[in-house]
# Entry
Amino acid sequence: MHFPPGTAPAAGSVHERYVADRLADVGRWGAETLPDVVRRHAREHPDGLAFIAGADRMTWRDFDAWSTAFAQQLVQSGLAKGARVGVLLPDGVEVHVAYLAAMKAGVVVVAIGPRAARLEVRHLLTVGGATALVSLNEHRGEPVAGLIDGLGIDTHIVLGPGSIMDAHTSSSAANAPAHPSNDSGKPAHSHTDGGPDIARSDTDGGPDQPHSHTDGDATLHGRQLGLGDIHLLNSTSGTTGMPKCVVHNQNRWFYYHELAVECGDLRTDEVFLTLIPAPYGFAQWTANFTPTLLGAPTVVMPRFSADEALRLIERERVTVVCCVSTQFIMMLNSPVLDEVDLSSLRCMFTGGEAVPFERAAEFERRTGAKVLQFFGSNETGALSRTSVTDTVEQRLRTAGKVIDEMQVRLFAEDGTDVTAVGGPGQAACAGPATCLGYFADPEANDKLFTPDGWMLTGDICTIDADGYLRVVDRKSDFIIRGGKNISAAAVEDQVGTHPAVAMVAAVAVPDPTFGERVCAFVVLREAATLDLHDLRAHLDARGVSRENWPERLEIVDDLPRGSGGKVAKSQLRDRLRAVAGAATGSSGS
# Structure
């Protein structure tokens, strides 16, 4: 694995030793890369389904062919091997084709979520060192060309409305677009006008159907990324400031796949429905790796709808659904649940937050599917997991049994290892499911690892005598809304830019559907006024992602302080709980 100049771990650092240990694992779970696996499926099961998107079907032959053709376009645009390419696309088939094409072309994807707003997009492209971008013409109603202005993006590949092949490439280095726009201002087709929809397989090698020539094509010769190479940088919420870029190689997800198959008893005849956007860690194994390694189809939907997700399970005979807790709770609340046949569903993988016992038990009763989870993060991968062989209590009241190979430890506040006594302590690990650290951020990596090389989670946990882990508290200042970690500090940074705000503290307010929502306690400047609508309009104008907008605003005269002078956020959370309790009491009287 090669880090670009100025981004490699410092020689002799804990991070460098950790990366070396992880690279020593490469190849333990097979020698094929993900493109190799797709190529094999295309040869052996060419008409088998890889993706299902509405009425459209993409076969393994198509997936291999389209990704190869797009990989060729990436290389022909002038990208060197190892270059970083931002991918900013809605969820759907196109984003998965783009990710696979990047592996074939030997370039690294800087993955950006479809809900990211201007500030986050520009930050991730900058930190990731992206020199190219794959996107639509617009993102969240804003022209992407203006969004990336001044960032040094030399190559911008704009996808058309119906196909990844309906694209044009503009390159500032060439001083002219490789495929100029037509008179309407829309991108001209890079191959044929009216080219096929990316997800259709209604041609049988016809004239418009691309063919995969990865093995013999000179354009791609020697370019494909290996199992240990960096293939993806995606974002994670930091405890301060803007998101960090997490470094991934394929090998960690091949190992993760082994864990998933074992705990879910997964087979080659599964049908996956993945409801998590493609850039996130949870979606890496549930959409990009495990279905592909099994040779199973993945059902995708561009925008989550509880009603439509339930209908998709029935229509496509889905056996494995992958979602955050908020999404399955919304499905439980949907009237469609009583109208559809969910008998095909065997299990649901959820995560990203504590699994609510009563609602999870209700999901099992009403669907017959077992609720499973991995405990971990984008950085750490999986420390523990529940299994189809676990009891209901073990599946739904714990975070599962500790994974021996992940070498899980619990550390007290003073750094003492309290694993032997079962904690409580901050959970940490040092195993093959972990990422390779943060990209170009040595200070953050120093905080991510203990001095002797364990990767920290920020969660306070216990481990019982049978090896089952429970999360009992949170050390990091995160608000977990719908499975997404929201940095309280990042919210405070942005709210604090409003001219009316003197001081601000962001905390979680409990919510029955989303688990937590963002509440901002604000001290106003003298004679200033502020309401939630004005605050959110200010954040919108700044290009702040909606997840970082407060959903509740509390105006206070002062913020409580602890003995060290820090804001006593526990007192603010107690205040919110007291208000909620009083409201519940009055409504029941």
